[in-house]
Amino acid sequence: MGTKGREIIGMNVDELLDLLRRAYCDEWLAYYQYWLGAKLVKGPMKDAVGAELLLHATEELLHADMVAMRIIQLGGTPVTNPEEWYKLTNCGYEAPDDPFVKTLLVQNIKGEQCAIGVYKRLLDITRDKDPVTYNMVLTILQQEVEHEEDLQSLLEDYELLVRAMKE
Questions:
Q1: Collapsed DSSP state (helix, strand, coil) of residue 120
Q2: How many of the other CB atoms lie within 10 Å of CB of 35?
Q3: Which residues are paired to 42 by β-bridges?
Q4: For residues 49-74, average pLDDT
Q5: Nearest to 102 by CA among 36, 41, 31
Q6: Is the pLDDT of residue 7 over 90?
Q7: Mapping DSSP to helix (H, G, I), strand (E, B) and coil, where does residue 91 land?
């Protein structure tokens, strides 16, 4: 990292790197959970849900890329061994073992809510201390909020469809 770039950070860089590395692990696990869920999804609205999950997977992979680049800029190294992802994750990983539409939506909403919490914390600790990381985190947080909204809308549509089918 450049000398001036390090100087503008008003916080412990090692602590920040640890938080970013954990977020990086979350993004890879989220990517895989979405990607695999999109392939396996079953039930009513599976095409719409699968398309949304695939879109989210792509965006989670972009988040991992953004976080990795920031880690490198700060002089750190992203987690290089996938075995470590699960150990360092904030949000965990819920395997799409039950590929039913509602189950996948509920699992992924939970994951997005966790991610929103992680990035809100990063936003709070980098505000006025690291403008570069702050702006990156703000971008990612905006997308995570959108993801939650998208998934909750699909779940609402699913519930309405099920209710209509019962009538």
A1: helix
A2: 18
A3: 100
A4: 97
A5: 41
A6: no
A7: coil
